[in-house]
Amino acid sequence: MAKICPYCGNTMEDYHLVCANCGGPYPNQNGTSPMNSQPMYHGSAPMSSQPIYNGQPYNPYVRPVDMNVGWGWVVLGFFIPIAGWILYAVFMHTKPNTAKYAGIAGIIGFIVNCIILALE
């Protein structure tokens, strides 16, 4: 049988000591609370002041993504196609636009080299 939180009205399992919604303690059978008599949060949890990085909340566990294109890498990928493919694999997660264009330049450079060799 589920219990009802006396602070927010949320349903709680019998084995819970505090409400998962508001953090309020549920009283024991003798009427005493196993913890403080006040809930930890009234309503929603407090907002923490997170630093902002490029308009998004900063998460130290996620690397920032660079959306700019490194055109030098793209030119290198065109003239040395294998380098373009390697750059694609290296920059795929941290610099997606550079990776995309370096990979495309590697493919185009490979095709151009094949055409030039076929015409000779």
Total of DSSP H or I helical runs spanning 4+ residues: 3
The tally of domains stands at: 2
Give the total of beta strands.
4
> What is the CA-atom radius of gyration, in angstroms?
29 Å
How much helical structure, as a percent, in the residues? Answer: 25-40%
Spatial strand arrangement across the major sheet: 1-2
SS strand fraction: 5-15%
Which spans of ≥5 residues are poorly predicted at pLDDT below 50? none
Distance between the termini: 84 Å
Mean pLDDT, as a whole number? 77
Order of helices and strands: EEEEHHH
**Gross geometry:** rod-shaped
Return the structural class.
mainly alpha
Largest sheet composition? 2 strands, antiparallel
Written description of the protein model:
The N and C termini lie far apart (84 Å). A hairpin with a 6-residue loop joins strand 1 (3-4) and strand 2. Helix 1 (71-79) packs across helix 2, helix 1 (71-79) runs parallel beside helix 3 and helix 2 packs antiparallel against helix 3. A two-stranded antiparallel sheet has the order 1-2. Helices cover 37% and strands 7% of the residues. The chain is built from 3 helices and 4 strands; from the N terminus they run ββββααα. It is rod-shaped and about 90 Å long. It has 2 domains: 1-45, no CATH class; 65-119, no CATH class.
